């Protein structure tokens, strides 16, 4: 069975160029970047070059503002926990949104248990916050505002530039979880007045267990993982230099193709939506579909069909899509994002699927998805 | 061998050895096998330790060993509405329900069956010790499992022929020891896993404690039918007719025989106790039952017929005469010999030889025509 991967917001396959770079590095550059030896210096050079590529990709002022981490989760945790710790005497109020990733929401919940106050901004039906609500929520003791750039479940984008402007006039720092948007959107931390930004390499055809946290110069966050003095004392642990070189390669690929990729994804999405309409499937798009959203993600509500049954049928036909996150017993949890958008009693919460495209998807694959999905939905409805 | 590869069988996998071997055998027979784990209980609903995560991990391990896809489906709502609500309600009425019977009727052979059909299944398979016989005309008969010690038809007795039409019980013709042997030889991760003994949602934990998290316990008096006060009970729902444990009454000089629950009165919140395993209040000669359900049509047996019956799981069969009322929605069942500890809320399951005919839910027990005070 030909398999189709349409779950690129979950993770992406590594690009051949990335694999090649990493393989070369693993063979030839194995030194410890902190070591005083020619081996160490070789590794250090690769590390510095990679860091430079990445710093440029988000228009950071200095390469030193990039701290490599184990991925999006560590970046989010570090930004939130270490800001809260460092600024605990300036204030204990934090603002975030109801639709953040768990890697943001769980640290927030922990901080609440430690006496911090967290305001969760609501979102409208399109999954977008209200800037006035943000303005009203900001206080003198607000130390951090954490708002994701693009949502992983429905693809909604937040007005990052406006948020940056608003937050920069307050005492708070501005963190954005950029995991889903990095490599797709143009990111400019200076223009958008971003203080902290999290990314993950495996969402843009890079290696897993790797990401970075952008920390604006002058924040002076303390290390979350303590130990050796790597990453200018901001993240202990020997750097995975081959993977970091692969990450830089993935960023280069993305930077070069971003515009074309965005067009490609919009076209695939349009094809999927039109194809399903043509088949007479009763569905709605969750959130916006006007080009303002993340182009690679589309969340669809299939009226009267449970997400788990659809997802399983797709998988039995070799097609990978997604429907929120699974609990430890494998069954789907109601999506907090769709709940925030439509309320917990909306059927959309349990009857939606997410398709997310990547650089290797083709139009033929989308045609096959339309065919299998339509057949499945018609069969399920007929069986009742 | 016949080509089964175009026949899709969705196996209910619990993470135990029985359903693991089911999936394994079907895969070996060449079926298109899909494993599905049912999550029926939200562990956040009570304070107990739930093994659902470990069980699902075992499903994943076994499915990967066998080489089949596996999934999980959430039936918490179906279980809550169809099984647990009924379960609590029965306890509230002083009866002793059987949630496993309801789970089969409302979840495994209803919600799960429907779900499997949505997955384009031709059959569903379960790891029950029971067998199915299909007549040429399509009539389905439920037969006892070959392992008489493990036979689970008691729990399947409320299913209709329609619910069993698409069911397979691949290990129903085997002994438990054979099942374990197959699992060991195949190297399945669950080969040595302990059998679960508890009700699916309660698991191995303390039953009274569990129940008290959902129903307020109302303590009251323990009395003999002769009117003697014997102490306090901690809520009628914690006691079953014929039970010995947990009464805390010592010998009283007259007799050293142990004390048993011999009756209940919900209206006065009284628990009746009496001495001796063979206490006369524990023996009934007939009962009546409603909520009747039969696997195959039984009209041709007439208004009245003789067969055997079980009044609880794993009990030996007893000879009984079944008398239907005119509407055929209630039966009076007269025993060949008196039966001890008939429990309202439990099923009375009817057998004809190896065939499980169906069952009803016990409402009242009688001793020579006199109603026994059991509820």
Automatic annotation (TrEMBL), chain A:
Catalyzed reactions per annotation: (sulfur carrier)-H + L-cysteine = (sulfur carrier)-SH + L-alanine
Keywords assigned: Coiled coil, Iron, Iron-sulfur, Lyase, Metal-binding, Pyridoxal phosphate, Transferase
Designated name of the protein: Cysteine desulfurase selenocysteine lyase
Origin species: Ligilactobacillus ruminis
Aminotransferase class V domain: residues covered: 4-368
Classification via Pfam families: Aminotran_5
Cofactor(s) recorded in Swiss-Prot or TrEMBL: pyridoxal 5'-phosphate
One of the record's GO molecular function terms: metal ion binding
From TrEMBL, chain B:
Protein name (record): tRNA-specific 2-thiouridylase MnmA
PANTHER family per UniProt: MITOCHONDRIAL TRNA-SPECIFIC 2-THIOURIDYLASE 1, TRNA 5-METHYLAMINOMETHYL-2-THIOURIDYLATE -METHYLTRANSFERASE
Region (Interaction with tRNA): 150-152, 312-313
SUPFAM superfamilies per UniProt: Adenine nucleotide alpha hydrolases-like
E.C. code: 2.8.1.13
Region (Interaction with target base in tRNA): 98-100
Catalytic activity: S-sulfanyl-L-cysteinyl-[protein] + uridine(34) in tRNA + AH2 + ATP = 2-thiouridine(34) in tRNA + L-cysteinyl-[protein] + A + AMP + diphosphate + H(+)
Keyword field: ATP-binding, Cytoplasm, Disulfide bond, Methyltransferase, Nucleotide-binding, RNA-binding, Transferase, tRNA processing, tRNA-binding
Annotated family: Belongs to the MnmA/TRMU family.
Function field: Catalyzes the 2-thiolation of uridine at the wobble position (U34) of tRNA, leading to the formation of s(2)U34.
Organism: Ligilactobacillus ruminis ATCC 25644
UniProt binding sites for ATP: 12-19, 38, 127
């Amino acid at each position: 069975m030909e398999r189709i991967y349409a779950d690129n917001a979950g993770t992406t396959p590594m690009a051949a160029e990335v694999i090649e770079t990493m393989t070369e590095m693993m063979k030839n550059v194995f030194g410890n970047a902190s070591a005083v030896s020619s081996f160490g210096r070789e590794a250090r050079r690769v590390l510095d070059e990679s860091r430079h590529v990445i710093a440029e990709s988000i228009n950071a002022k200095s390469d030193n503002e990039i701290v490599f981490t184990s991925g999006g989760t560590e970046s989010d945790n570090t930004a939130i926990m270490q800001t809260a710790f460092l600024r605990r005497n300036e204030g204990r109020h934090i603002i975030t949104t109801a639709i953040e990733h768990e890697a943001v929401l769980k640290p927030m919940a922990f901080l609440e248990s430690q006496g911090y106050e967290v305001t969760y901004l609501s979102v409208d039906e399109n999954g977008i916050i209200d800037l006035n609500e943000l303005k009203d929520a900001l206080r003198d003791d607000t130390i951090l505002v954490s708002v994701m750039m693009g949502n992983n479940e429905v693809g909604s984008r937040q007005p990052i530039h406006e948020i940056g402007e608003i937050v920069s006039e307050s005492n708070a720092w501005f963190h954005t979880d950029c995991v889903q948007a990095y490599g797709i959107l143009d990111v400019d931390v200076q223009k958008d007045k971003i203080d902290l930004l999290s990314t993950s390499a495996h969402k843009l055809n890079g290696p897993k267990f790797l990401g970075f946290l952008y920390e604006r110069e002058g924040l002076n966050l303390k290390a979350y993982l303590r130990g050796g003095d790597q990453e200018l004392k901001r993240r202990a642990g020997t750097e995975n230099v081959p993977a970091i070189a692969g990450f830089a390669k993935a960023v280069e690929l993305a930077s070069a193709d971003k515009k074309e990729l965005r067009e490609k994804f919009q076209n695939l999405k349009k094809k999927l939506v039109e194809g399903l309409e043509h088949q007479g499937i009763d569905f709605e798009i969750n959130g916006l579909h006007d080009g303002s959203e993340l182009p690679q993600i589309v969340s669809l509500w299939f009226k009267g069909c449970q997400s788990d049954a659809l997802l399983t049928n797709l998988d039995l036909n070799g097609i990978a899509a997604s429907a929120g996150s699974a609990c430890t017993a494998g069954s789907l949890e109601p999506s907090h994002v769709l709940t925030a958008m439509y309320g917990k009693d909306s059927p959309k919460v349990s009857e939606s699927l997410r398709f997310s495209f990547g650089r290797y998807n083709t139009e033929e694959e989308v045609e096959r998805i339309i065919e299998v999905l339509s057949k499945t939905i018609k069969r399920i409805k007929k069986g009742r | 061998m016949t080509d089964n590869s175009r026949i899709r069988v969705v196996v209910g996998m619990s993470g135990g050895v029985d359903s693991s071997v089911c999936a394994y055998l079907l895969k070996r027979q060449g079926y298109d096998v899909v494993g599905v784990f049912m999550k029926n209980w939200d562990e956040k609903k009570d304070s107990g330790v739930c093994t659902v995560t470990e069980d699902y991990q075992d499903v994943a391990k076994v499915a990967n060993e066998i080489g089949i896809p596996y999934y999980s489906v959430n039936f918490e709502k179906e279980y809550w509405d169809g099984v647990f609500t009924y379960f609590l309600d029965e306890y509230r009425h002083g009866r002793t329900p059987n949630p496993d019977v309801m789970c089969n009727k409302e979840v495994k052979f209803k919600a799960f069956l429907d779900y499997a059909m949505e997955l384009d299944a031709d059959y569903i398979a379960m790891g029950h010790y029971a067998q199915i016989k299909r007549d040429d005309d399509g009539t389905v008969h439920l037969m006892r499992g070959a392992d008489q010690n493990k036979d689970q038809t008691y729990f399947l007795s409320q299913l209709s022929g329609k619910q069993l039409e698409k069911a397979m019980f691949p290990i129903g013709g085997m002994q438990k020891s054979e099942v374990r042997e197959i699992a060991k030889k195949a190297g399945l991760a669950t080969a040595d896993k302990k059998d679960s003994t508890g009700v699916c949602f309660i698991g191995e934990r303390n039953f009274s404690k569990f129940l008290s998290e959902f129903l307020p316990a109302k303590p009251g008096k323990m009395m003999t039918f002769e009117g003697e006060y014997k102490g306090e009970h901690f809520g009628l729902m914690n006691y079953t007719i014929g039970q010995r444990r947990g009464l805390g009454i010592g010998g009283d000089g007259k007799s050293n025989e142990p004390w048993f629950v011999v009756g209940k009165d919900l209206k006065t919140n009284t628990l009746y106790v009496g001495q001796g395993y063979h206490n006369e209040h524990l023996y009934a000669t007939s009962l009546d039952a409603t909520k009747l359900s039969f696997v195959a049509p039984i009209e041709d047996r007439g208004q009245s017929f003789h067969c055997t019956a079980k009044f609880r799981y794993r009990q030996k069969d007893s000879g009984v005469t079944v008398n239907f009322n005119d509407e055929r929605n209630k039966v009076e069942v007269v025993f060949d010999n008196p039966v001890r500890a008939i429990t309202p809320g439990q099923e009375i399951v009817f057998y004809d030889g190896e065939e499980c005919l169906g069952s009803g839910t016990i409402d009242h027990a009688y001793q020579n025509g006199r109603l026994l005070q059991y509820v």
